[in-house]
Write a structure and sequence with these properties.
Strand content: 15-25%
Shape: globular
Structural class: alpha/beta
Largest sheet: 7 strands, mixed
Number of helices: 9
Radius of gyration: 18 Å
Number of domains: 1
Order of helices and strands: HEHEEEHEHHEHHHHE
Helix content: 25-40%
CATH topology: Rossmann fold
């Protein structure tokens, strides 16, 4: 389940959305309803989903009885909701547990209303501490094991088997009509802040590394510039979690 500081960061971003608290919100794989309980208390119309009835992450099922919960929702399959059903869709510390992100992003886009928001948090592979470790070892800094080699295929979702590569997720969001409009902060750790003198170098490197094809194509250039902007954003470099707010463009 998400740690309290992640829950608070996600709720803080939801409060900033237009129309709050008069929003219909779907929380995919909602854990024990930590985020939903706060949003419901502030007047939002909320719904959650779960996949397995024996999900390891749910310790107190009584907390979920006050919310409408759709069970048996496999995020590797189409969602059981109508098109344009929700103002906001949440995924808090979920994407990294999926072996593929493409279908769920397509489904998120389908069930979001035009102008609605997709908000997700996930471990941040692109923070400076992780980038430095990857440079030295070719392995990103992870919170726990990426793959449960000793687990059955049905239980691998308990591990971070699909850690989010930001350039890929940036492209995938764009393919589905979702445009990143904000990055949030969750937690700042001292070891990351100690690397802050590298920020100007990262900023400059991102702006110098524009794909050669993008230099000749205005649309590609704009996309590449947006990617480089987010890759050098302070929240990207220093936040322990990647916290993204993306908006569904008009259909």
């Amino acid at each position: 389940m998400p740690q309290p500081f992640i829950v608070e960061a996600v709720v803080r971003e939801i409060r900033r959305l237009p129309g709050f608290p008069n929003l219909s919100i779907l929380d995919l794989s909602c854990g024990e309803g930590e985020v939903l309980s706060q949003l419901a208390a502030e007047g939002c119309q909320v719904r959650g989903t779960h996949f397995r009835s024996d999900d390891y992450i749910i310790e107190d099922r009584g907390k979920l009885e006050i919310f409408p919960i759709t069970t048996g929702v496999d995020l590797g399959k189409p969602l059981p909701f109508q098109e344009s059903s929700f103002d906001v869709i949440l995924m808090t510390e979920v994407l990294e547990h999926l072996d593929s992100h493409f279908l769920v992003l397509s489904e998120v886009s389908r069930v979001l209303r035009s102008g609605g928001f997709f908000v997700f948090s996930t471990p941040n592979l692109q923070r400076l501490h992780s980038r430095l470790q990857f440079f030295l070892t070719a392995k990103h800094k992870l919170i726990r094991r990426r793959v449960g080699w000793d687990q059955s295929s049905a239980d691998r979702y308990a591990f971070h088997i699909g850690c989010v590569d930001f350039p890929l997720i940036h492209a995938a969001l764009g393919w589905e009509g979702l445009e990143i409009c904000r990055l949030g902060l969750t937690q700042l750790k001292l070891k990351s802040l100690l690397l802050s003198p590298l920020w100007p170098l990262v900023w400059l490197s991102c702006r110098l590394t524009v794909d050669k094809d993008a230099r000749r194509n205005p649309i590609l250039k704009q996309t590449e510039q947006a990617l480089n902007h987010w890759l050098s954003h302070p929240a990207m470099l220093f936040s322990e979690q990647l916290l993204v707010v993306a908006q569904r463009r008009g259909r």
